Amino acid sequence: MSDKPVIIIGSGHAGVQAAARLAELRWDGGIVLVDQEETAPYERPPLSKEMLKSADPTALSLLRKDTFYRDNNIERISGRPVRTIDRAARQIELAGGVRHSYHRLIIATGSTPRRLDVPGADLPGVHTLSSHADALALQKALTAGSRVTIVGAGYIGLEVAAAAAARGCDVTIVEFRDRVLSRVTSEIVSRHFESLHRSNGARFVFGAGVRAFEGDGRVQRVVTSDGTSLDTDIVVVGVGVVPNQQLAADAGIACDDGILVNPHCQTSDPEVYAIGDVARCLRDGEPRGQRLESVQNAVAQAITATNHVVSQSCEVKTEVPWFWTVQHGTRLQTAGLRHESDDIVVRGSALAGKFSVLYLREGRLAAIDTVDALKDFVPAKKLIAAGAALDPARAADPSIKLAQSQTDIAQ
Amino acid sequence: MTDIRRADVLDPEAPDTADPRIVVIDRDGEHHRLDWEPDQSLMEVLRDNGLPILASCGGTASCATCHVFLDPRVTAELGERCEDEQELLEETESFDTARSRLSCQVERSTALDGITVTLAPEE
After folding, report:
1. How many CB pairs below 8 A link A and B?
2. Where are the alpha helices (H) located in chain B, listed in sequence order?
3. What is the pLDDT of residues A246-290, one digit of tens each?
4. Which chain A residues contact residue B50 at CB under 8 A?
């Protein structure tokens, strides 16, 4: 029976989880997973972490073994981009003109690295990193001794910087703000990672934007906003992503830096859902909603959306968002979303290389960063979910278990 | 939702078949007999057969959502947990010193043929 097909566009973490979940829920109306890439769906996080360092350039971590889709009656259409969504007819049209009808549509198109709108941005040698093909190209380019300039000191930029340094490249990182990871963490964690990269040979240029990329046939120089010219062999641009919302916007679905969805992941058309990086979820009390770029969010939204498709389940599982990065063997794990105005409690010692930073909002734990201190991560996630109030002095003492610094349990 | 579609439900009367099969006990106590293919971690066996583990970090010992219990003799065979695995497991409510492992950190080996794996409760 496939009289009520659910079509999923995009087979990253969100799309594949949605397909797998529909199978698990015994959806027998048909499950179709459409993707413009040819390759079997794969994991993204290793592309900027293990894979760039790996000796085997083709190593690809698949999200599910390749027989999984057939065994679960998930029809895969790969190597075919979707051209249009025809909401009136409840159909999608693929490149080449073939149309498929849907009962419900789930858009999981993800995001694309933001490009710098400066002269020379298209020169050969200027890379971004998002797909397996990008990672292969970059891995080939990162040869020992080459000069690599990385624009942007966020997760991707720094992960690539670490991989490049490990491959013997000469690394320079240009960052517009005055510290690394400024969008995602506090000063103390930023400085820790800055020093980690410096001790592995990287140079930083802070407070500088890029005015142009220059070169004869391929990139040879990065000109920064103050006019400094940096000689380079390769550039990697890691300045954030933009959601792949065009398909939805063209179909008249409401978008605003992401496809707008309600807590069930329904778009402005209730028969169309959006999940993962491309979705901006609007909840009460959050004026602009949230768009989260993480595997955890992709998986959670896939489950929420498919539960709603199958059973109209109104139970929304809100999970504490979490993120991780590994650079030069040092692992940062973040749970919750910090605000600039949060009170900061440092637990452990940054000098010893093992510490956590707690973010308290009105006395309650709102977020945490753990640096090689995984033991704080699991309890912190629970405390954040519970909105637990912590005693800052106890929380700062790593000899006391984090959960025991909670003030409201004693009462 | 713990409805399992793909994994065969184990018939307790059936004779033991050749390895490398394993028996997985899900959170409802149901038994499943699964093949463990070369190059799969234990987490991948569970996930690819539709058992309800999130494994949201993709197998990098970052999230503790693939926590399982193994026979203490098997865990002894596997050797020490790495520091990350140990720290994540210790903080789970159902941590069992002798039996807890992150399934993403368990690679296939002949010593593990025929083992029984129990999914830990969801956190």
Report:
1. 68
2. 42-48, 72-78, 83-90
3. 999 999 999 999 999 999 999 999 999 999 999 999 987 778 899
4. 20, 23-24, 72
